[in-house]
Structures are given as C-alpha cells and as structure tokens.
C-alpha cells in the first residue's frame, strides 16, 4: 500500500539526505579530500546529474512491468545499504562512486510524486497535492541546509548517512507491513494510451530547461559569495541560503488553492520575471538587509512558478503523469548538469556573476513559454502495472 503520508515522508527523507551537504561541498572537498573545492563540486554535480538523466526514463520503462510498490521496496533496500557504504568513504573517488550508485536507485523514488498526483481526478485536489509536494521539497532544503551547517563541523560528517540508512529501513518495514489490497490505486495491467497533450509540450520542456538552469546556476557557489561579501557565520549563511524555501512554507499557508484554479501561465510569467528582477538586485547591492528582502521576494516567485509548472503538466497529461513527469525530471536534470558549468564559467569573473546569469536565463524561460506553435502531439502505447 502506498498512501499519501508515506509518499511525502519518503520524499522528504530522500531529499533531505541528498541535499544535506550540498551547500558546503566546496569547503568539504577542500578540507576532507585536499582537492580544489570549486572544480570538484562541478565534477561531482555533473556526474550526479548524468546518472539521474539516464535513470529516470529507465525507471519510467521499468514501471510499465513492475508495480510502484515493488520498485520502492527494492530502491529503499538498496539506498539503505549504499548510505552505510557512503558513510565510510575516505576518498573522493569512493564518495563519488557510491553517490552515483545511490542515485541509480534513489531516482526511482521521485516518481512517487507524479504517481500520486496523476491518479487524482479533481483539479483542486491535484493543486493541493502539488503545493504540498513543493512545500515538502523546500522543507527538506531548509532542514538539510540548517542541519548540514552543523554536520559539516563534525569530525566525520559522512557518518550522518548511517542515520538516513536507518530511516530508509524503517520506511521499508512500513511498506512491507501494508497490504496490497489497500493500495491507493488498484492493480491494473491493461494497456493504456497516453493522452495526446493539447499544448506545445516541446516548448514547455525547453522552458523547464532554462527555468531550472537559471535557478540552479546561482547555487553551487552561493554560500561562498555570501561569505565573501558579507562575512557571516555558517549558520547565518545557511539561513540565507534556505530563505526562498522558508518562503515556500509560508506561502503554502497563505496562498489559497483557488489561485491555481484558472489560467496559470500568466501567473508564471509574472512571478518568474519577479524572480529574475530580485536576482539582479542580489547581484548588484552591498546591503545585507536589502539582500535578505530580495531573497524573500525571490522565494515567493520561485515557489509560485514551481507550482504553476507542475499543475500545467498534470492538467495536460492526466493519468499519464508518471510517464511525462519522468521526462520532465530528465530535462530538469539536464539543466542541473549544465548549471555548475555555467556557474563555474561566470564565477571566474566574480562570485556575483551567477546571480546575473540566473536572471537572464529566467527571462529566456519566460520568452520560450510565450511561444505558441502547432501542438506537438505525443502518443505512446504503454502497458502499466499500477501497484
């Protein structure tokens, strides 16, 4: 049985473990492995994204024959083992290799979200689950970043992954104790035609690429930028880093679901341009108070735009959401693959250059979404096993 609370708890734990040390990779790689932190961070992120780009569509194919329950059971078992191995890594090569193997299985768990939302009939309930998911993502970022700022000061930070391995085993035990007959969606082995999307999905995917490229190009060296310009402590630095995620949680409580019930694309244009403008402010001012205010506004725009993009896809794809979302994740990770390259290239000029580049890329994303051409109809014959 895969119930809604289990889905979101599993995603929260998975995301937290994945993001835990990422804001501090440059510092950690320099201190722990005696390597050039900035360059090795780019190598690590690129390698991880390549694995997810390849494996997410692969898991989409696997889910045509295996039930989601079976995939999750196998993945949780393997992630628990690999996290224990990761905690014992003493070299960069072992850390990288184990992390890549971990992502092979961990990438399947992210398909729990479209699996859940794609089987909901009511549009308002789809929007509700989407906003919950976005909050889970940002809450994981908040917890992992703040917790990571503490863990990074430990003598052996990687030992924390043993805790996450135990959590994975607990999730595995919970899922094993549930009954198949009580699953959210009954087994269905009949062949289904994926709905032909009625909007230009190609341009949507291109916009997704530039959207995530813009937002993620600012991240690899963000803490270094803040430290260089404002000289704050690790804890304050981490708090500024997760400020947009804090805003996502706040907006979930303040913004009514009906905001997303009508045409959502105009809202996407408005809030994405707001995000781009705030990035320009962050890269061009020296006032810490104004910088923090701009981070708050940036977080509001980021949250609303993420919700809009997911709702838009779910409306178009209906029950085929898992299939289409697997490709969305692949495109997103292509963006995440290029993001550290963009960050590394422009940061050679200055640490604030990624912020300016991010603003430009978000404007490009808005421009691509305005394109309306002949719809690219996608038909796909799939045999699903929806356990």
TrEMBL record:
* Keyword Transmembrane on entry: yes
Q: Which keywords does this chain's UniProt record carry?
A: Cell membrane, Membrane, Transmembrane, Transmembrane helix
Membrane topology per record: Multi-pass membrane protein
Q: Does the keyword Zinc-finger apply?
A: no
- Transmembrane annotation, as ranges: 40-63, 70-86, 92-112, 132-154, 160-176, 197-218, 238-255, 267-285, 291-313, 325-345, 351-371
Give a GO molecular function annotation for the protein: transmembrane transporter activity
Query: Main site of residence?
Result: membrane
SUPFAM superfamilies xref list: MFS general substrate transporter
Q: Where in the cell is it found?
A: Cell membrane
GO CC terms on record?
A: plasma membrane
Q: Which protein is depicted?
A: Putative MFS family arabinose efflux permease
Q: Which organism is it from?
A: Psychrobacillus insolitus
């Amino acid at each position: 049985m895969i119930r809604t609370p289990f889905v979101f708890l599993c995603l929260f734990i998975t995301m937290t473990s994945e993001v835990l040390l990422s804001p501090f990779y440059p510092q950690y790689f320099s201190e722990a492995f005696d390597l050039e932190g900035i360059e090795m961070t780019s190598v690590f992120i690129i390698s991880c994204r390549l694995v997810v780009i390849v494996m997410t569509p692969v898991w989409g194919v696997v889910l045509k024959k295996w039930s989601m329950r079976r995939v999750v059971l196998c993945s949780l078992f393997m992630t628990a083992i690999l996290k224990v191995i990761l905690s014992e890594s003493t070299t960069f090569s072992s850390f990288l290799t184990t992390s890549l193997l971990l992502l092979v299985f961990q990438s399947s768990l992210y398909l729990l979200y479209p699996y859940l939302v794609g089987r909901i009939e009511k549009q308002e309930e789809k929007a509700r689950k989407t906003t919950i998911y976005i909050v889970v993502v940002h809450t994981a970022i908040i917890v992992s970043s703040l917790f990571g700022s503490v863990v990074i000061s430990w003598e052996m930070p990687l030992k924390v992954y043993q805790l996450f391995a135990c959590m994975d085993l607990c999730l595995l035990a919970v899922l094993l104790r549930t009954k198949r007959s009580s699953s959210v969606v009954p087994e269905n082995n009949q062949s289904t035609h994926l709905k032909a999307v009625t909007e230009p999905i190609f341009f949507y995917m291109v916009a997704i690429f530039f959207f995530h490229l813009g937002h993620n190009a600012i991240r690899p060296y963000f803490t270094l930028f803040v430290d260089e310009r404002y000289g704050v402590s690790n804890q304050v630095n981490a708090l500024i880093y997760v400020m947009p995620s804090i805003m996502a949680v706040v907006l979930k409580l303040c913004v009514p679901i009906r905001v997303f019930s009508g045409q959502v694309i105009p809202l996407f244009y408005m809030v994405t341009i707001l995000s781009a403008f705030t990035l320009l402010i962050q890269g061009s001012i020296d006032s810490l108070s104004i910088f923090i205010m701009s981070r708050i506004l940036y977080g509001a725009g980021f949250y609303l735009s993420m919700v809009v993009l997911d709702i838009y896809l779910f409306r178009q794809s209906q029950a085929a959401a898992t299939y289409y979302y697997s490709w969305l994740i692949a495109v997103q990770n292509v963006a995440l693959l290029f993001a550290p390259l963009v960050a590394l290239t422009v940061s050679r000029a200055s640490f604030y250059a990624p912020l300016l580049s991010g603003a430009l890329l978000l404007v490009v994303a808005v421009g691509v979404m305005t394109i309306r051409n002949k719809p690219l109809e996608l038909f796909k014959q799939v045999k699903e096993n929806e356990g």
